[in-house]
Write a structure and sequence with these properties.
3-stranded antiparallel beta sheet; 7% strand; mainly alpha; 7 helices; 47% helix
């Protein structure tokens, strides 16, 4: 069963702060020059979680799931010592790999994401039906 609470929290966060949502970026924070740069090291995840980058950090649904959950990013390190955000987010949302692949795809309609997340929170996991939800937004 999907983590309905987290899915709804992400939907609410996207609606409240659309400038912090970008489906094409796992997790990006401003560098010292103010430009966004991807950063998937555990320290960055924890700093975003603690609110250190409230102004300027952006993330996709998967990035939001990792930051907004209580998972330990250190448990999801890949060979490059970066957080495997796909796996961490899939586990945090308690969804299968097929749904995660569909949901985290950069081609998802950003304007429809809150409705899609709420549909999943309500128990809809069939991607054909989720595409219908997406197309109505």
């Amino acid at each position: 069963m999907p983590n309905s609470d987290l899915l709804r929290k992400i939907a609410d966060a996207i609606e409240a702060n659309p400038d912090q949502y970008d489906q094409k970026t796992w997790l990006a924070v401003p560098n010292r020059f103010g430009r966004l740069q991807n950063s998937m090291v555990p320290a960055t995840v924890l700093r975003v979680r603690e609110g250190k980058f409230r102004c300027g950090a952006t993330a996709c649904v998967a990035g939001h799931a990792v930051v907004m959950s209580d998972i330990d990013p250190e448990q999801y390190l890949n060979a490059l010592q970066e957080v495997d955000i796909f796996t961490a987010a899939r586990d945090a949302l308690d969804i299968d790999s097929g749904l995660a692949t569909w949901l985290f795809d950069h081609r998802r309609r950003e304007s429809a994401m809150p409705a899609v997340l709420r549909a999943i929170a309500d128990g809809e996991t069939d991607t054909t039906r989720l595409r219908e939800v997406e197309s109505k937004c």
